[in-house]
Amino acid sequence: MLVLVVLAGCGAGGDGAEGGGAGDVNYQDAGTAADGGGGGESGSASGGGDSAAQRESSDDGSATGSQSAARALVRTGQLRLEVDDYDATQATLTAAVEARGGYVADSAEEVREVGNETFTTGRVVFRVPSENFSGFVDSVEAEGETLSSETNTRDVTDQLVDLRARLDNARAERDRLRTLYESANETEDVLAVSEELSAAQERVERLEAQLASLEGRVAMSTVTVELREPRPESTTTETETPFADRDPVGAFLGSVDGVVVLGRSLVVGGAYALPYLLVVGVPVGVAAVVYRRVG
């Protein structure tokens, strides 16, 4: 009887958790949220001349503004800059992000060569508190010539609410199973509840990890910066010496080398051709001798 109760309760809890997770990933563009907020303000402003209606509309507009301010936003930025000194710029940006409470999450650089000169390119990933996102992006753009700049904002408020609700349901189911496990006496009941309890604990841990990851991306924005120094211009050009100005000794030695190369080529060519001459020439020679004797 206890096993049936456990399975029924777990089935109901599992259905509730899965039902809550139907929209697991549902990002909404921040522009849509902003348009919605703007619409609320416009609607309140379009009321008639009644002062009471105006005050009510003003209150509605304030409520809409406070709701917009409470939205959970994931903000990211991607920038490409050309800078005079890669190392100095990276050090300046690192100090800037640390001053704003952020840090360098990842970096990679490459030194390239053009002729006898070198230039450095690389990529640095910064994590900065979301409230300092815009200020840090402005600091990055001020460090060199901005080749490209792109920022994105995603509203994940609904996703956070969904994850938290699913996590609460999963924790409640786990706690209920723990109570049943502690009160179980029969071995069969203990084994059945233990299996369901392990599955419930796994669901809780998985949802906790998803929630922590999403909250981390909301709290700390990501800014990816590609830096490159100017590519040096190649100034080395090879000029051919006029024939009359060449060194006679060098010309003679060059000719001797050419003769040696030619001789080696003939020897190597003969070595390659010798097997074919034996295979083809011997039968032809024998046939010629026989033909002359018969004739």
Record keyword descriptors for this entry:
about 300 residues; alpha+beta; Alpha-Beta Plaits; six-stranded mixed β-sheet; 8 helices; about 20% strand; elongated; disordered N terminus
Description:
The protein has a domain at 74-154: 2-Layer Sandwich (Alpha-Beta Plaits), CATH 3.30.70. It is built from eight helices and six strands. It has helices spanning 2-20, 30-45, 51-69, 86-99, 133-141, 157-183, 187-219, 248-294; strands at 28-29, 73-82, 103-114, 117-129, 145-155, 220-228. Helix 1 runs antiparallel to helix 6 (157-183), helix 1 packs parallel to helix 7 (187-219) and helix 2 (30-45) packs antiparallel against helix 3 (51-69). Mean pLDDT is 77; it is low at 1-8, 15-58 and 60-68. Residues 34-50 have a biased composition (Gly residues). Residues 71-286 form the DUF4349 domain. Residues 60-69 have a biased composition (Polar residues).
